[in-house]
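Reply to dn_fold:

You asked what the input looked like. This is it:
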Amino acid sequence: MSRRPSPLDTEKCRQCSSFSDYAKIARRKAYEESSGEVSSTTGPGTFRSDCPLDKDELGRSSWGLLHTIAAKYPENPTRTEEKDMANFFTLLSKFYPCDFCAEDFRKELKVDPPQTACQEDLSQWLCRLHNRVNNKIGKPEFDCSKVNERWRDGWADGSCD
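and this is what came back:
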C-alpha cells in the first residue's frame, strides 16, 4: 500500500518543521489551488487535532518519553542493560523522524555518549543533552538537580499526587 500524496511533498515534512511553518505552507498552497479563495476547512485556526506530529510536538513527546525511560532505568543495571540502553540511543539517532534533529543527535552522541552505569547517571546525562538542545533553539535550561523530581517522583509540593 503506497502512501497518500500530500500537497506538501515538495516542502519540508511535518517532522522537520514547526506547526506554524507547516500551517503557513498549507494555507498558501490551498489559497493558490483555489484561485484566491481559502476554504473554511483550510482557513486559519481550523486544523484537526489528529494530524501527524510537527517538529515541536514530536520534540516534546520524544523528550517526555526519553526522560521517563531514564527515570525508570535500573539503579544497578546489568552489563546487558547498559549496552542495550546505549544501543537504544544509537538506533534512535538513526531513525528519528526529523532528519536535522537526528543528525544533530548523532553528533551529540559522538561527543558525549550515554552514561548508562545507573539511573542517576542516565537521567543526568539526558538532562544535560536536553539542555544543550534547549540552548540551540533558544529555550531555557532545566535545573538538572530536579530531574528525578520532575520525571520519576513527582514535585515535592505534592501537586502531582
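The CA atoms of residues 67 and 126 lie 7 Å apart.
Hope that clears it up.
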